[in-house]
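Practice problem: predict the structure.
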Amino acid sequence: MAAPQEQRIAVPIDDPNADTEWYGRADSQDALRAEESRMKIDWRGKDLDELDELEDLEDDAFLESYKQRRMQELNALTKKAVHGSVYPVSKPEYQRAVTEASNNGPVFVNLTSSMGTNVESRVLSELWKQAAKEYGDVKFCEIQADKAIENYPDRNCPTILVYKDGDIVKQIVTLMTVGGVRMSMLEVDDLLVDVGAVGEKDMRVVKRKREAEDAKEEKLMERGGIKSGNLRHAMVEDDDDWE
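Answer:
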C-alpha cells in the first residue's frame, strides 16, 4: 500500500464553534494502589470470577472492598453503555450523527474503503465492531470514504477521525502507524486513552494489557523450553536438592 499522503481532511459538515464541556473518566485510586503494593498483588484488571478464585488471601476485608469497587465500576459502565454497535452513517446524517453528537461524548469515525481488496480497511471494520461492543459508552461510526468526501483517495483508507466538542481532535491515515494489518484491540485501547475517551486505568484497558503481558511471558517461557505450569515444579525440585 502506498504511503499515506499528509493532508488535512475536509469533512462533510463541521461546526468549530461547539462549546460543550468535555469530561474524562480517570479517577484517583492512590489508596488502592498503596494497598495493592503492600499485599504484592496486581488487582487491577481482574474480573469478579478471577477475584473469587483468590482464596488464600491474608486480608479478606480488602478483597471484599475491592470487589465492591469493581461492582460499582461495572454498574457505572452499564449505565453509560448507550451505544454498543457501529453506526453506519450517510453524508446527510453526518452533522447530526457525528459532529453534533461529539458534544455529548467522543465519536470515532472509520472512513472505509469501497474496494473489497483493501485488507487494512477490513481489519479496522472488524476491530470497530469489537470496540463498539466492549465500549458501549463510546460512539463508533463508519462511512464509505468517497461517499463522505468526494474523490477521497482509496489509498488513504481506512482513515480514522476522532471528534470531540464538534471538532476533529485526531486523524490517522491508513493503519501504517498503528500496526498495519496486525493492528489489534491494544492499539484501539491506546487510541481511546490518547484522546481521553477512557482513562488509562479503565478496567477494560488494564485487563487486556495484563492478558497480553501474560501471553507474552507464556510464549517466552515456551520458547525457552519451560512452560509456566512446570516452572514452579522445577523451582521446588531445586529447593529439594539443597535439603
